Amino acid sequence: MAKGDVRHLDHFVVAVMEPDRAEKFFTEVMGARTLKSENEPNMTRIFMKLGENHIGLFSQGKNKLPNRQSANSYPRHSFQVPAGEYDAMAAKIRKASPFVKDISGDLGCCWNEGLVFQDSEGNFWEIAETPGIAKTRLHHLHFDATDVGASVDFYKKFLNCTVKAQNVTMAEVVAPSGQSVVLNKVDELSEVTKATWRGRHFAFYVQDDDFHAIVDKLHASGIEERDDHGERAGRKPGQLGTYFREPSGFRLQITNEDSATFAAHAND
Asked: Residue 131 pLDDT > 90, yes or no?
């Protein structure tokens, strides 16, 4: 019987102010490639393959990310980069990013070397050099949380994540893939976390039976879930996806379509 296990962190969407500028940054600096673009009168969506994962760049109309000058900003999206590609990527980041800082021990956990930086739009990222991998890949996410214990309980109960580390200032919850969500204790959620950004979500890949088991657990606890990002009409037969909020308000998705499948059929 399925217990509602997530398999891995698969993809996410970030807010962008100027889609063309953002696409150029991720192409030229991060080595991503565009899978497809969707242009509507009041919104642009660009989907890009970044190593093993894909990311969405969604325009925000007149809304803009605030100016942030702290490496301890949330959320942060953290990627491992193959050893043979790291130096070249890091050099491009240092040249193109409006904010770059060497990673040190005050940034939580997971690794002690690498870079934390902003993209062209003001979103925060981390990279670390990783021997033995063939492609850049998503390793962890940094979220802020006012109640770390409640957040840990949520990820354990509904996604069956395990706890790798926990203390009074942070916790790290881990998927079977080894990828993690790092929950950082704050007195107040950041402005970026509290705000509503078009399409922003963070997706876990699941198998079909686990999808339904997670939905059942959410329903049993009175937590709303729905396929509410306008994608339902485009879902293929057998494709499952839904969204719900975790305790800090980040919108999570569970889906049975992973990045490799999405990339293969992006323009179908």
From this structure: yes
* Phi and psi at residue 183, to the nearest 5°: -100, 115
Cβ contacts of residue 35 below 8 Å, gap of 6+? 47, 48, 49, 54, 262, 263, 266, 267
pLDDT score for 238: 80
User: Is pLDDT at 108 greater than 60 in this prediction?
Assistant: no
Mean of pLDDT values over 232-250: 83
Instruction: Report, as an integer, the average pLDDT of 253-263.
Output: 93
What region, left, alpha or beta, does residue 214 occupy, with left being phi > 0 and alpha being psi -120 to 50 degrees?
alpha
C-alpha 18 chain-centroid distance: 20
Burial of 212 (C-beta count, 10 Å sphere; 0-12/13-18/19+) = middle
The token pair that represents 266 in the structure block: 């992006």
Asked if pLDDT for residue 259 goes beyond 70, the answer is yes
Question: For the purposes of burial, counting CB atoms within 10 Å of the CB of 237, is it exposed (0-12), middle (13-18) or buried (19 or more)?
Answer: exposed
Structural domains present in the chain: 8-264 (3.10.180.10)
pTM of the model: 0.95
Task: Check residue 234 and give its pLDDT.
Answer: 59
Q: Which two tokens stand for residue 28?
A: 């030229």
> What is the DSSP pairing of strand 8-16 with strand 53-59?
parallel
Angle (CA) 258-39-234 rounded to 5° is: 40
Residue 235 has pLDDT above 70, yes or no: no
Q: Please name the amino acid found at residue 244.
A: F
DSSP per position, 125-166? EEEEEETT-SS-EEEEEEEEES-HHHHHHHHHHHH--EEEEE
Please give the Cα distance from 168 to 242 (Å, whole number).
Answer: 32
3-state helix, strand, coil split of the chain in percent (to 5) is 25, 35, 40
